[in-house]
């Protein structure tokens, strides 16, 4: 792990590089994604199956795309009871947290006018669940449960096909979470199918969930054709640690995030150069024997940086500049710093809040903004699955009170038809 102190010439360039890590995909990626999107829009199932064979090396027919109820039922026989119990416990805690996010329709009276907002769920949502390097039943729960809590009637899951069938943990998680349709389909072609619809897959109103750079680019390009949650990139963790933090805990937390992907980015910001050096040594030691040692090693070698600063206030400012997906405060009295944190997808407070407890079992959503987008994006929530419509009701008496200023404002903007629409009620 690279260590830079404020006295180093590389400190500012290293911080700038970390802060700008979320730049959009290159032209080559975008060109490829556009080609696939256009092909699926025009060719539907035929294009979807062609790209599935090309990229996933799996030949399917349209009738093979949808997972059957029997396959879901059989998935339960391929996992242990304690594993199913763990998924159900996680689902209960995720549900409990997200039920507190519900927003209700509300109205109030302003003299004789009635004003307010009506809250309704979207009709259909598509959940993208990655495949390939790892299996993510936890992401199924995190994406589907808020939709169910919001009252979305149609919850569609897509996940890349595997030659041995879809992983049973994904199917069980989807069943527990209330997913209504599952398709063995991944990549840009899956996102396109959800957005445009095909003969086999009806289109959805919104697409959520993490994916690789191609999936993320597809979501970005389709925004407007369909809704999206956010443009998420590789996983990230930043640990702010004082000199009392335990190096072994910090190293373990950084590796917890680094094992996601070779492009995962982890950072340490600390007031102690000794701690930074100890953490670097322990990362090398703890890497040995990890199931995903090669992936985590590449992530650490490519991206891991420890920033050594003079004060905790400076550490918090560095954290705000980077705006990480996950931010751990391994300090005494972490709540004292809470109001100073302006940009982070999720905050893990104190010495005994490992990122993994939030990834799996705590309840808050782990689908979070990455690449510095925590400056303007929020975690996935029930609010992502509902729409808000404004309510306005005026009586003739109340309209009469505001008619004259209404007409004046319309005339200022040069819209006399607007003025006449109000005046016509009194002619």
TrEMBL record:
<dbReference type="Pfam" id="PF00815">
    <property type="entry name" value="Histidinol_dh"/>
</dbReference>
<keyword id="KW-0368">Histidine biosynthesis</keyword>
<protein>
    <recommendedName>
        <fullName>Histidinol dehydrogenase</fullName>
        <ecNumber>1.1.1.23</ecNumber>
    </recommendedName>
</protein>
<keyword id="KW-0520">NAD</keyword>
<feature type="binding site">
    <location>
        <position position="260"/>
    </location>
    <ligand>
        <name>Zn(2+)</name>
    </ligand>
</feature>
<comment type="function">
    <text>Catalyzes the sequential NAD-dependent oxidations of L-histidinol to L-histidinaldehyde and then to L-histidine.</text>
</comment>
<feature type="binding site">
    <location>
        <position position="257"/>
    </location>
    <ligand>
        <name>Zn(2+)</name>
    </ligand>
</feature>
<feature type="binding site">
    <location>
        <position position="128"/>
    </location>
    <ligand>
        <name>NAD(+)</name>
    </ligand>
</feature>
<feature type="binding site">
    <location>
        <position position="189"/>
    </location>
    <ligand>
        <name>NAD(+)</name>
    </ligand>
</feature>
<dbReference type="GO" id="GO:0005829">
    <property type="term" value="C:cytosol"/>
</dbReference>
<dbReference type="GO" id="GO:0004399">
    <property type="term" value="F:histidinol dehydrogenase activity"/>
</dbReference>
<keyword id="KW-0028">Amino-acid biosynthesis</keyword>
<dbReference type="GO" id="GO:0008270">
    <property type="term" value="F:zinc ion binding"/>
</dbReference>
<feature type="active site" description="Proton acceptor">
    <location>
        <position position="325"/>
    </location>
</feature>
<keyword id="KW-0479">Metal-binding</keyword>
<dbReference type="InterPro" id="IPR012131">
    <property type="entry name" value="Hstdl_DH"/>
</dbReference>
<comment type="similarity">
    <text>Belongs to the histidinol dehydrogenase family.</text>
</comment>
<dbReference type="GO" id="GO:0051287">
    <property type="term" value="F:NAD binding"/>
</dbReference>
<feature type="active site" description="Proton acceptor">
    <location>
        <position position="326"/>
    </location>
</feature>
<dbReference type="InterPro" id="IPR016161">
    <property type="entry name" value="Ald_DH/histidinol_DH"/>
</dbReference>
<feature type="binding site">
    <location>
        <position position="418"/>
    </location>
    <ligand>
        <name>Zn(2+)</name>
    </ligand>
</feature>
<feature type="binding site">
    <location>
        <position position="212"/>
    </location>
    <ligand>
        <name>NAD(+)</name>
    </ligand>
</feature>
<keyword id="KW-0862">Zinc</keyword>
<keyword id="KW-0560">Oxidoreductase</keyword>
<dbReference type="InterPro" id="IPR022695">
    <property type="entry name" value="Histidinol_DH_monofunct"/>
</dbReference>
<dbReference type="GO" id="GO:0000105">
    <property type="term" value="P:L-histidine biosynthetic process"/>
</dbReference>
<feature type="binding site">
    <location>
        <position position="359"/>
    </location>
    <ligand>
        <name>Zn(2+)</name>
    </ligand>
</feature>
<comment type="pathway">
    <text>Amino-acid biosynthesis; L-histidine biosynthesis; L-histidine from 5-phospho-alpha-D-ribose 1-diphosphate: step 9/9.</text>
</comment>
